[in-house]
Amino acid sequence: MQAQRMNRQKIYASFNGSQSTKNLSELCIELLEEQKKTWPELKDAYEYLKHIKVKNLQCKGYSVQIQHNPKRAKSSTASTDFAHINSRPCFLCVDNLPEAQMGILYRDEYLILCNPAPVFLNHLTISYLKHIPQGIGENINILIQLAQDLGPNWLTLYNGPRCGASAPDHMHFQAIPKGYTPVEKDLQDENKFILSAQSEEVFIYKSKDIGREIILLEGAGKYTIAGVFISFLEALKSVIKTEDEPMINIVCFVEGGKWYILIFPRSKHRPEVFFRDDDEKITVSPAVIEMAGVIITPFERDFLRLDASKVEAIYHEVSLDRKKLECTLLICHNKKKIKNLYQKR
């Protein structure tokens, strides 16, 4: 087991799903409070978060929140070049963690850590103990299980290795409290997610008029919904003609005895304005949190300049185009012999 080989001093508590006297959500809240006492940098980061600037923008059919968070500059501007990534020490490997950082050993394979550059008032990173590349195909069951273990007050997050993962060379997830992302409000509007198909008791919805393409899976069986997700992923691979993992971001949560998986298919990681070297440059690097409607701007000039039209353009540019998504759904439907419920509008 990986846990047997790691530094036990890094373990604040353990959770294996059967013997723990406290639920995982309680343990995570306790971990954060304890780490604030013993890790000054983390305490400062969370105090700083209370005073950051935010503004809400109303776009065409949806809203977003812009957050000016200078402590996310390192993440937002990180090099995505794999030569650079492979040459630096991995900050998620246990041996490279800050001395004061501790975590919850999760099911003997992951370490739940407090994110030292938080976007929300409780922001977790769930890191695999072994240094293996980021990838969701073989790990979707873990993401779904994590959502179940954390419970209905949390969102579990995944960034693909080419569209937002802070450490694409090291498998990890994130978790944040539920109720802070604008896309959650969109989910409550039945006009914004249209039923497309049903497969094996999993309902498949696609977004309508919220600025970017989103697929929503809803189902009561965790293995069944995982299977439909894998079918979608394989279909997407065939449409965009790649053997690698397609660029996707994922939000997963449980509610009312069901699992929900939000999939954000991507066409690119960063918009063209990110790479400009003139006054039109905007340092926005969309990952899962941005695709869920909270857009991080590490620099104040971008916070002040971002308006609804710029956000709409960025979403349109980095999101997969609708034709490719329709083709993906068609292939997925045919392979799984899904009863197509989609009606042309």
Write up this protein.
The protein starts with a helix and ends in a 5-residue tail after the last strand. The radius of gyration is 20 Å and the shape is globular. The chain contains 12 helices and 15 strands. With 345 residues, the chain is of the alpha+beta class. The relative contact order is 0.15. It has a domain of 191 residues. Strands 1-4-5-6-8-7-12-13-11-10-9-15 form a 12-stranded mixed sheet. Helices cover 32% and strands 24% of the residues.
Poorly predicted segments: 337-345
User: Tell me about the biggest sheet?
Assistant: 12 strands, mixed
The total strand number stands at: 15
> Which structural class is indicated by helix and strand composition?
alpha+beta
Tally of helical runs: 12
Mean pLDDT: 93
The best one-word shape is: globular
Distance between the termini: 53 Å
Spatially, the strands of the biggest sheet line up as: 1-4-5-6-8-7-12-13-11-10-9-15
Strand-residue fraction? Answer: 15-25%
Rg on CA atoms, Å: 20 Å
Reading the helices and strands in chain order gives HEHHEEHHEEEHEEHEEEHEEHEHHHE
Helix content: 25-40%
Oligomer designation: single chain
